[in-house]
Design brief:
single chain, alpha/beta, Rossmann fold, five-stranded mixed barrel, 37% helix, binds ligand 4EZ
Length: 230
Amino acid sequence: MKTIGIIGAMREEITPLLDFFKKYEEIKIGGNSFYTTTYKNYNIVIAYSKIGKIHAALTCSTIALHFHADYIIFTGVAGGLSSDLKVGDIVLASSLCQYDVDISAFGHPLGFIPESKLYIDTDSNLNEIAKKAAIKQNIKLKYGIIASGDSFISSATKKQWIIDKFNACAVEMEGASIAVVSSLLNIPFCIIRAISDSADDNADISFDEFLVDSAKRSAAFIISILDEIQ
Ligand code: 4EZ
């Protein structure tokens, strides 16, 4: 049986999935709880990493190497950068970058690490499945670059800087970790995020108001992807 790993950053981002599956076992590794269950003909492993790129890298590595995930899917919320994104909209990442990597002192482009890539592509097969699921559910998916970094973006100036430098449509704090770890370990992955705020001066208020609802939207979409993978 194949294994699908599903990762969120915050407990709120995976709670709707645990509520959906109802029965699961808990295994604790490295400060994370991994919830295992089965769905249709798949083993499912669900975990939240805690916020930020380092935590997400550990959780993703554990799901890959300990649980031997065949696919990895991230679910959660994000700040919208594109003007056509509003709260509740769903973004499917085409690729991920780290906006907070800067070794430009040595002539490298912002976000670039030698022997790695500025933008890491998500898996085209999983993305096609997500796009099919969206059409069936009549959901308008935004497909574009997601930028990750270890800050909650709540300033119009910083927001514009990320748009200008990285051409990203959404910002969050974990996606690039999933991209780096999964791609290096050759595990197909995709990143789904529902918008909770617009990464502007009101982002904190908006995030607090819409975290739970947007997390539910993202999780519901993950279930429809699982149904489409069959
Ligand atoms: C990080 N996540 C936010 C964690 C916020 C508060 C205690 C998603 C996110 C985000 N990240 C939603 N909106 C964002 C924004 N404007 N900037 C960065 O993945 C924790």
